[in-house]
Design goal:
The complex is a heterodimer of chains A (about 290) and B (about 250). Chain A has about 290 residues and is an all-alpha fold. Chain A has ten helices and one strand, in the order H-H-H-H-H-H-H-E-H-H-H. Chain B has seven helices and eleven strands. In chain B, a hairpin with a 6-residue loop joins strand 8 and strand 9. Classes of the chains: A mainly alpha (about 290), B alpha+beta (about 250).
């Protein structure tokens, strides 16, 4: 799949933002006043920034409001509805906390549940697609939730961030390994796609057209996969391994926390790029490409 | 609503005969011609006369070579357009309700004025039947020529999809799969009409008739079954040709 910057930014940043909102709703850290304002500002900048980035890949963004209508069937619609509801509920909770110092705990809990549900809906947009076996796995929503929780805990300066980061790194590595087998396990190849396997070995003799088309640009992205192993190693080191070591061994101040967050972000962006670039859509089989 | 209807009154669709298709692309051209000038946004071409032309098409022909060991290779032309699936995943993923499946005839359509161009329906389709138009930013797909098949301004003979109407080899057929006595149901039953990628559980309506097995002519090492008739008739020429042969040999 084509790793478009808009969807990478959308899924990474909004996941982090909602992860941070999840912990803020639970009162971790228990802040108020300007300190609460700073935390909520970061969370909203990430969540809203991510959601706005997602509209950049739309063909007709002026109709985006219509996307809130089909929550009964569509995960994308659910994601929009839940995300906006979460932002509204947390907005009320945050406003009361920042400006009046009143903390309505149940409102925060509701906001937390909505925030983490928004991340789950984002994951399901991808995990529901049978056409992309690497995404159509149980690990996809677990991974997205762990990214949000681990990143959120890191931003919320919680000590258990270390455990979540370790779990995330482990699940990410397992998910890469399982993902490598997913296309073969789904049982798709050019013979089954064309239904011509009983006649022999199939290969594309002539493509429908000499150039590219929307499908090959969007869904048959093969550029850059040759470096995927190196990128996985760099990503795992940045997003989890080095942060876990640093958090475990050293006393963390503001500056060192910033460094760890920056490292985690780099790892997150690389892994999200791989999430798209390595994903193979079954339509590629008709073009004799994956 | 992007919920799928539990059943449709008709199941309109195509039978595509892979044994007959000659890969002339006439259906591709007629599809583009009809659909760029009728229902919905036109099918744009970008950089049409430049070095990297791309365009929106609702129907595309792939050509495959199929080969078994020790057998001669076989060419199969493979037209591909929307299969108007009963469990169309493209419909249920749509966030705006622009994609829908009609209860009356099962045709899967896009209401372009509701489409935000997110592209998720194209991701959900295993067959590559949907293409986002680069100029309009809305999703385009085969409409089964919904603006032809019910169009009373057209002569009755033309009230079928443009691709079917134009096919010079008669490889494409249009009809109602809900009716077991229809032309398409009968043809599909006789020839073992297949669904594409049944593992995806989309229940496509369109059926592909597999190529008939080719006669095996390679059993005795003959190049051609006509080879015995091509043997030289006279080994040694006689008369004038015989003299000429000897004279030329002597030079």
């Amino acid at each position: 799949m084509h790793p478009a910057a808009s969807v990478i930014i959308f899924t990474s940043l909004s996941g982090l933002g909602f992860g941070l909102l999840f912990f803020l709703g639970l009162g971790k850290p228990d802040v108020s006043g300007w300190s609460a304002f700073a935390f909520f500002f970061i969370a909203y900048a990430l969540a809203v920034g991510g959601l706005l980035a997602s509209t950049f890949h739309l063909g007709n963004p002026q109709r985006a409001m219509k996307a809130f209508s089909q929550w009964r069937t569509s995960w994308l619609s659910r994601e929009g509805v839940v995300a906006v509801t979460a932002l509204l509920v947390m907005g009320l909770y945050a406003a009361l906390l920042v400006f009046t110092g009143i903390r309505i705990a149940p409102l925060g809990w509701l906001g937390s549940v909505l925030s983490i549900t928004a991340v789950y809906c984002t994951a399901m947009i991808y995990a529901q697609l049978k056409t992309v076996p690497r995404w159509n796995m149980a690990t996809t929503p677990i991974l997205f939730l762990l990214y949000a929780l681990a990143g959120g805990a890191l931003l919320a300066a919680q000590t258990f961030a270390l455990l979540l980061l370790a779990a995330l790194t482990l699940v990410q590595i397992l998910s890469w390994m399982r993902g490598d087998l997913s296309f073969a396990l789904a049982g798709h190849n050019i013979e089954t796609a064309t239904g011509l396997g009983h006649l022999g070995k199939v290969r594309l003799l002539e493509s429908p057209h000499s150039g590219e088309n929307y499908l090959t640009r969007e869904m048959v992205h093969v550029i850059g996969r040759k470096h995927s192993f190196k990128l996985r190693v760099i990503s795992a080191l940045c997003l989890g391994v080095i942060p876990v070591v640093l958090l475990g061994l050293f006393q963390i101040g503001h500056l060192s926390a910033l460094l760890i967050i920056a490292l985690h972000l780099i790892g997150l962006f690389i892994s999200r790029w791989l999430f798209f670039a390595e994903a193979e859509h079954v339509v590629g089989l008709y073009y004799d490409k994956r | 609503m992007t919920a799928l209807p539990s059943s449709t009154q008709k199941k309109l669709g195509l039978v595509i005969d892979l044994d007959i298709c000659v890969g002339c692309h006439a259906c591709v051209i007629n599809c583009k011609e009809w659909n760029t000038s009728n229902y919905g946004a036109p099918l744009s071409d970008i950089d049409a006369y430049g070095s990297n032309p791309v365009g929106t098409f609702l129907n595309r022909i792939h050509t495959y070579e199929v080969k078994l060991d020790n057998k001669i290779a076989q060419t199969v032309h493979f037209p591909k357009s929307c299969l108007h699936c009963e469990d169309a995943p493209c419909v249920t993923v749509c966030p705006t309700g622009a994609s829908y499946k009609r209860v009356e005839d099962g045709i899967v359509l896009v209401n372009e004025s509701d489409c935000i161009g997110c592209g998720l329906c194209a991701w959900a389709c295993p067959y590559g039947a949907r293409e986002l138009d680069a100029a309009e930013g809305v999703m385009k797909k085969c409409t089964l020529c919904v603006d032809r098949i019910y169009n009373e301004n057209l002569p009755e003979i033309d009230r079928e999809p443009a691709c079917v109407r134009t096919c010079p080899a008669n490889a494409r057929h249009f009809g109602d799969f809900a009716d077991p006595d229809s032309n398409v149901s009968q043809m599909s039953a006789e020839r073992g009409g297949m669904q594409l990628m049944p593992q995806q559980e989309t229940k496509p309506v369109n059926r592909y008739l597999p190529p008939r097995p080719k006669a095996d002519i390679h059993t005795d090492g003959d190049i051609d079954i006509l080879a015995p008739f091509l043997e030289p008739v006279a080994d040694t020429p006689k008369g004038l040709l015989g003299w000429l042969d000897k004279a030329l040999e002597a030079i």
